[in-house]
Every structure is written in C-alpha cells, then in structure tokens.
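Quick check before the chapter quiz. The format below is the same one you will see on the exam, so make sure you can read both the input and the output lines.
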Amino acid sequence: MDQPTKHNLSALDAGLIGTVLLLVLGGAIGLFGSNSLAGATQVAMMMTGFLAALVGLKNGISWNELEASIVRSTARTSGSIIIFLSIGALIGVMMLSGAVPTLLYVGMKLLSPQWFYPTCCLICALVAMCIGSSWTTAATIGVALVGVALGFSLSPAITAGAVVSGAYFGDKMSPLSETTNLAPAIAGSELFSHIRHMSWVSIPSFIAALVLFFAVSLGSGPDAARESQVDSFLAALEGAYDIAWFNLIPVILLLVLAVKKVPAYLAITSATIVAIGLALVTQMPVITQFMALRELEGATALGRAIWISLYDGFAIHTGNEQVDSLLSRGGMQSMVNMVWLVLASMMMTGVLERIGFIDLLMRALSRLISSTGSLIATTMGTSLGVNVLTGDQYLSIVLPGQMWKAEYRRRGLASKNLSRTLEDGGTITSPLIPWNACGVYMAGTLQVATLAYLPFCFFNLINPLMALAYGFLGIRIARLSDDERAALQGRDSSPMHGQESAFAGR
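Here is the expected output.
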C-alpha cells in the first residue's frame, strides 16, 4: 500500500485549530459544568474535528485519507469500548446477585467514618498493586467504597478521589500492570529497575496524599445522626438481600483472573456469568421484586429480568431512598454515553493526527529544552498533551517515549529516567481528563463526574509536581555509566539496528 502524502501544516492553521479547540471545549465545560459530558463535550470535539478536516482539505489531503485516519484512531479504542459495556453489564448483575450489597454491608461494619478517606486510598492501593489493574480495582472495591461513603453521609467526590489515587499508585507500582510494563519497553529500561526508580517519586507522593486524606477526614468523627443513618442503611440491606460470604464469589473470581492476567473482557464476562448463576440460586426474592418493578409476567419473565439487568441495569425498592438510589444502576445502557464520548474524541484525534497538528505541536515543544529539568518537564508536558488530544493513556507513553528517547541518551541520562517520566506525565494524569478513556471509565464506574473528583485525586496531582521538582533540582536523576554509553553506541552503529527498531515499532 502506498504511504499517504504528507502535507505541512502552517503555524497559522495550527494556531487556528488550537484556539478553536480550547475555546469550544472550554466553552462546553464552562456552560454545562459537570454535565458537559452528557453531550456538549462530544459536540465540541466533533465540531473541532470538522474544522480540522476543512483545514486538511484546504492543504490537499483527501477526505479518504482523513476518513482512514479516523477509522484507525477509533480502532485503537475498540477494546476499551467493549470493556466499558461489559463493566456496565457486570455492575447490573453484581447488584442483582448481592455481591456489591455484601461489600457495602461488610465495609460499613468494618470501616470508620473518622479515617474513611485514607483507608479507602490504602485499600485500593494494595488491591491494585496485587492485581496490576486500576480499572478492575475501581469496578469492584471502588464501587463498594463509594456506596459505603454514601451510607456514612460522606462525600462521594472525595471518596472517588481516594479510590483513583490509591488505584493508580498501586497500578503504577505493580509489575503486573500493562502501563508499568509498557513504559520501560518503550524507553529501553528494565521493568524492576523502572519500578524502583519510580518509587523515589511515587512513594513520597502517596504518603503526602494519605496525609491530606487524613486531614480531610478530621471532621468526620462519630455523629449520632450519622450512626442512625448507618443503622437504617444496614437494615435495608439485610431486609432486601441474603447477606453471606458466598455473594462475593464473582468479585473474588474477577480479582483472581486479573492476577492471572486473563484478558479483561474474558475475566469480566466470566464474573458476570457466575454472578447470574449466583443470583438465581441465592437471591430469588430480589429477582422477584425486580420483575414486579419492571412489570414482567409470564413464563419468560425470569429470563427477561436477567437480560434487562445486563443491558438496562438493576432497580430495587427497599424503603430506604439512599439504598435504592445506590443499588439501582448498571447495565450496558449506562455506558453508552461514555462510548459516545470516546468515539467523538477519536474522531477529532484521527483528523488532528492526519493533518499534522500533533506532530507540529510535539516538534514545537522540542525547542523548550535547555536542561535536564526542562527535558523532563517537556516530556511530561508532551505526555499530558497527548492525553488531552488523543484521550489514550497508551499513546501518552508511546508517542513521547519514541520522540524523546534519543534526547535522553544524547544527554547521558539513563533510560529509566524516561520511563519514569512517561508514567509521571502520562499514566498518572489520564484519569483527570474528562474525555480520556481512563477519565471516562472512572466517572462512569464510580458514578462521580471527572471534574468533581479531580481536586481530590491528591496522588495524581502531587506526583507530577514532585517529579518536576526532582528534575529541576537534580534529585534521583540516573546517569549512564561508561559501559552503558559504549553499549548504546555499539548498538546504534550496528547495521541491523534500524531493522530491529522498525520491527519493534510494529
């Protein structure tokens, strides 16, 4: 296949597109606030993509080329979209089967409101470190903790911030994590050396986040009204469900499959099927009430009830409005708006990539480098920029990693500096962007808007700032040894080196 012809994008064109992007997206968020993701942001992205496409057509790029780039960009998110929908189905049947209600019950029995936020953060960090997945952690433990917070009359936004903070710290420190393996693979460093090097920034950042969560928790001590509400919450759960340890089997199965690195869709769907079977055996009164609420009758009512919980979510009436609101959720339908957001983002990204906007932006950033600190700052800024423009955390590691790899070598910096910086600027910031796949996922799963939980993602906010400080102050910046310099020079001069690189990039 012939390579598409490249056309230069002028500074005027790039400035126009950048201005429109900021004004339209900023306007959507300013006008609609946290509700902007219900459609305003999607429209803004597609209109920006349309304008960028007109610029591309003006510059001689055919619509077929632009459309092909949109298709390629969208294809990158197909796996995430399938996971979004499957998580929606899982949440619906985990409500039906009693898995989440049992987690809520146990959590409210064991956790204290006084230390709830730091405990949430720590629990999610440990789980994510064990399984290597921030998404799975949020979909299981995270969902339950947000529910417990509502039971304690605590802030769901702060709780979601604690969940995201803990989940991303644990994911980042886990050798089982995809991004933790991807960053050193792109940068050319070794996995465990990469994790050790990250720990010098991530562990102090996590400790600082825990201190802030403790500070936020100081005003959440025992309260008679809160204790009465908790008792009412627990009574509603006990009255509606058969609360027992075996209700947690789908959650345990999902965590075990995640540890064994089973592909996410297979693991989630397996847990969904097990949850359906468990519901039919242990929670028939709940299913019967659900059928009555949906006005389902006849021989097919049971099958239709299960089917509806998968695609349209679960609903219950316990007599406690707070419990009903918390448990009546899930279904693939609940994730459709998030899928729309991802598709709109990828439409815009595909056009921006093809007309050369992203490439021009990254080349302009290279002029800002004058020191090790500015190199690290520019790398992080590039990763953040790719997160904002493409909505894809993997690209925020891959593109800047490929772009800055040679510059780190030229300055005598060990590759683990680059791999750490890619995670500090890319992985960590991804759930803070409303249209990024990670931000979309966390908002949809935890039912808290990205902009609502963002101020409380203390780890995700502190870690990049601490990484910048380390870079400019020269703290824990690893240099290449003489032997490493010689080995890299020998490999770069090898006639096979270019072929190996080309193959590795496919």
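If your answer matched, good. The chain has two domains: 11-74+341-491, 79-335.
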